[in-house]
Specification:
Largest sheet: 13 strands, antiparallel
Order of helices and strands: EHEEEEEHEHEEHEEEHE
Structural class: alpha+beta
Number of helices: 5
Number of domains: 2
Oligomer: single chain
């Protein structure tokens, strides 16, 4: 399985941000953690290694995080731990200067926090996928969407719905909850079949799958999906 959260480097500072992110051994302290003995420890992100591939630069990070704990004798304390995270800086059009953060759920927010503290007050631009506004174009490029998660449906009884199936455009539920201009809700994410595997595209710029992909296959598919979305103007940078 994989999860990639997309951002775009701030154009006014992309050169300095790239330099910092591609300095092997560089450490970005971003916070403090207090252990069970009351000792304060630094929370850091370290650039572990840097490589190149067909799409740009691959940066391997070591990211500190903490888990809150409680002991009846010592009270509250934290356990610090480190996880591996991959960051791709794309250098291939049409997504040059986009980055994807591939790792655990908080990885992108911790990286952003570390860069804000050490490098730039605004390192990234947010990336949104216009699933609702470009729905017809997306469905024409990704035929047979297998899943829709919809919220804020304008119905007296149904406010949120998840629709799964095949060729759902023929169903009344799809027409009412997804397509109808009066009753349809906001599309949070969709599931599209890619080589017999289900890949999710979210409104907030994430692409992920619960299926297993080889690393090179994962990067290729993520790039191709973003390329397609760019071609139909379904990517909003703000």
């Amino acid at each position: 399985m994989f999860s990639s959260r997309f951002y775009k480097l701030n154009p006014s500072e992309d050169a300095s941000i790239k330099t910092q992110l591609t300095t092997e051994g560089k450490i970005f302290p971003y916070g403090k953690s207090t252990d069970q003995l009351g000792t304060e420890e630094d929370l850091e992100i370290k650039i572990d290694s840097i490589g190149s591939n067909d799409y740009g630069k691959i940066i391997k990070l070591l990211v500190d995080d903490e888990i809150p704990q409680w002991d009846r004798r010592r009270g509250e304390f934290n356990i610090r731990y480190t996880k591996r995270v991959n960051v791709e800086i794309f250098e291939k059009e049409p997504i040059s200067n986009f980055i994807s953060v591939c790792g655990f759920k908080k990885a992108d927010s911790l990286l952003r926090q570390a860069l804000i503290k050490n490098v730039s007050k605004s390192p990234f631009k947010s990336v949104d996928i216009l699933l609702k506004e470009k729905q017809s174009e997306i469905e024409s490029r990704f035929p047979n969407v297998k899943l829709f998660k919809v919220r804020e449906i304008k119905d007296d009884h149904v406010k949120t719905a998840m629709l799964t199936g095949s060729y759902m455009e023929d169903s009344p539920e799809y027409r009412k909850f997804v397509q109808d201009p009066v009753s349809a809700g906001e599309i949070l994410y969709i599931g599209v079949p890619i080589h017999d595997k289900l890949v999710f595209i979210t409104q907030n710029g994430s692409i992920y799958s619960r299926n297993v992909f080889a690393p090179e296959e994962e990067l290729r598919e993520v790039f191709e999906i973003m390329k397609t979305l760019m071609e139909i103007n379904a990517v909003k940078v703000s």
